[in-house]
């Protein structure tokens, strides 16, 4: 069955796939405890440790994790007269794209008598942790998973299933002496203790509805997200750039709410709404 899933993933142009057993999950509990102690969790992070190690009763019927990676391209932010979305928000909303492909794998499982459930981003799981356990990369100092083929430019899709599948070996590697992501983090959300301060991460701040005094100081012409720790990472040097010319800020600001909804209804930025994005643009223009 595992080989059938792999063959189907290739037909679906899924860029990498891995598997792990839920009962054999390796979880760094100290990392979660330290994150709590330092008060680094942002409002987007939900659930508790039982959602990370899958001991939550809602996952009890499942035996295995199938993790799929879908590659992204880089964004070039070179024109300061234009605004940009980060790489994750270019094109059709990845929640839609990924689920459409993962549904095909779930159909295969169902046709063979197995149950499954899809998770893409907006859930309580630690998808990077599951991808690590599935042998799809190692954790970099930027707190992102680094894949040998895709660098850090990918989206993650998770399937939990009651099918028992032999797992892949995790990759034990590290960034060595490279600290480029830490040095180039605009808000110093990355630090030497290895734990991302989610509350300071610029990607979070650009999506936050209400800013505290001073949190806007590091805003730039990327008005949704932040790719700086990825752009600087040596593992991403061969990642292709999008053919994306940015957006005229005045044009965006002058769009009506209805025009925004129609234009971006299939984009990852749609959920955050025009009001927050307008605020971010005005912060950038007023600097």
List keywords for this structure.
287 residues; alpha+beta; 2 domains; 4-stranded antiparallel beta sheet; two-stranded parallel ribbon; 8 strands; 12% strand
List the helices and strands and how they pair.
Blueprint: H1 2-11, E1 16-21, H2 29-37, H3 49-52, E2 64-71, E3 84-85, H4 94-111, E4 116-119, H5 127-133, E5 138-139, E6 145-146, E7 154-161, H6 180-184, H7 202-205, E8 222-224, H8 228-231, H9 249-253, H10 257-264, H11 274-285
Parallel strand pairs: 3-8
Antiparallel strand pairs: 1-2, 2-7, 4-7, 5-6
Question: What can you tell me about this protein's structure?
Answer:
The chain has 287 residues and is of the alpha+beta class. The chain has two domains: 2-75 and 91-161, no CATH class; 180-285, no CATH class. It is built from eleven helices and eight strands. The strands form three sheets. The protein has a four-stranded antiparallel beta sheet with strand order 1-2-7-4, with helices on both faces. A two-stranded parallel ribbon has the order 3-8. Strand 5 and strand 6 (145-146) form a beta hairpin. The mean pLDDT is 95.
Compact summary:
With 287 residues, the chain is α+β, with helices and mostly antiparallel strands. It has eleven helices and eight strands.
Poorly predicted ranges (pLDDT <50, ≥5 residues)?
A: none
Contiguous helical run count: 11
Order of helices and strands: HEHHEEHEHEEEHHEHHHH
What is the radius of gyration computed over CA atoms, rounded to a whole number of angstroms? 19 Å
Integer tally of domains = 2
Helicity, as a percent range: 25-40%
């Amino acid at each position: 069955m595992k080989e059938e899933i792999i063959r189907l993933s290739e037909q679906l142009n899924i860029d990498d796939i891995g598997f792990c057993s839920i009962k054999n999950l390796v979880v760094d509990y100290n990392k979660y405890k330290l994150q709590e102690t330092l008060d680094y969790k942002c409002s987007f992070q939900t659930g508790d440790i039982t959602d990370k190690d899958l001991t939550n009763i809602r996952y009890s019927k499942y035996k295995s994790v199938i993790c799929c990676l879908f590659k992204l391209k880089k964004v070039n932010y070179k024109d300061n007269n234009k605004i940009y979305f980060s790489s994750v928000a270019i094109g059709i909303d990845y929640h839609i794209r990924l689920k459409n492909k993962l549904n095909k794998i779930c159909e295969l499982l169902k046709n063979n008598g197995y149950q499954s459930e899809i998770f893409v981003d907006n859930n309580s799981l630690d998808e990077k942790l599951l991808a690590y356990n599935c042998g799809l990369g190692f954790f970099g100092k930027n707190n992102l998973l680094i894949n040998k083929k895709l660098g850090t430019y990918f989206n993650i899709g998770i399937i939990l299933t009651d099918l028992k599948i032999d797992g892949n070996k995790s990759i034990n590697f590290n960034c060595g002496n490279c600290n480029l992501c830490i040095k180039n983090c605009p808000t110093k959300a990355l630090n030497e203790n290895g734990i991302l301060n989610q509350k300071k991460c610029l990607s979070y701040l650009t999506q936050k509805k209400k800013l505290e005094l001073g949190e806007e100081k590091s805003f730039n012409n990327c008005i949704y997200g932040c790719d700086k720790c990825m752009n600087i990472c040596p593992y991403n040097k061969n990642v292709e750039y999008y053919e994306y010319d940015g957006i005229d800020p005045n044009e965006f600001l002058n769009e009506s709410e209805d025009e925004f909804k129609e234009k971006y209804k299939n984009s990852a930025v749609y959920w955050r709404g025009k009001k927050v994005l307008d605020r971010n643009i005005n912060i950038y223009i007023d600097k």
